[in-house]
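Quick one, tokens below:
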């Protein structure tokens, strides 16, 4: 009975992870996408728990679903309606770059799965220290130090970029204030002379 419950929970968490991942990229509102990402990170934490990686599950909830998502929601709230301005007006080099990067990742996943399928996808030998803080710290500071540091730099650049995008110049603020005042007086800037 215990194995059946674990499998049911695993299937529910896996479908929740897939569903919330699809919701992240399909919602038009960035706030709803960020909330879906929180659901995705939470369901991923459940999958970590089922893999006996309690520390990773706790770090997933505290660091990613907690701190990083609060930063994302802050930046989305700070930018307001201007978050989608770079993507307005049809395909741009950013959209084309995103499609090329997605295609490259898809090709990489297919190649890796094809190479592993040749070895009949043997189950991994998981030892008792899997998911412990000491084991994760040792792996982070030895084998994956470069990836760990690059991730921290990318998050820092994202935070600085969000603040730069959210700052308004004095000229923009004066134009917005003048436009609001003219609209209140009954004259709109687009109405002509």
């Amino acid at each position: 009975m215990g194995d059946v419950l674990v499998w049911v929970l695993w299937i529910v968490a896996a479908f929740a992870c897939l569903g919330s991942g699809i919701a992240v990229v399909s919602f038009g509102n960035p706030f709803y996408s960020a909330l879906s990402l929180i659901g995705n990170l939470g369901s991923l934490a459940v999958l970590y728990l089922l893999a006996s990686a309690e520390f990773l599950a706790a770090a997933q909830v505290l660091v990613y679903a907690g701190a990083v998502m609060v930063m994302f929601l802050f930046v989305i709230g700070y930018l307001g309606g201007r978050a989608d301005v770079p993507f307005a007006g049809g395909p741009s080099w950013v959209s084309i770059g995103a499609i090329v990067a997605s295609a490259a990742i898809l090709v990489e996943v297919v190649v890796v799965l094809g190479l592993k399928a040749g070895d009949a996808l043997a189950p991994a030998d998981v030892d008792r220290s899997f998911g412990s803080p000491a084991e994760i710290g040792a792996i982070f500071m030895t084998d994956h130090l470069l990836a760990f540091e690059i991730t921290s730099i990318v998050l820092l650049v994202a935070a600085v970029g969000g603040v730069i995008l959210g700052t308004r110049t004095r000229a923009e603020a004066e134009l917005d204030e003048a436009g609001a005042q003219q609209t209140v007086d009954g004259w709109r800037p687009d109405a002509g002379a």
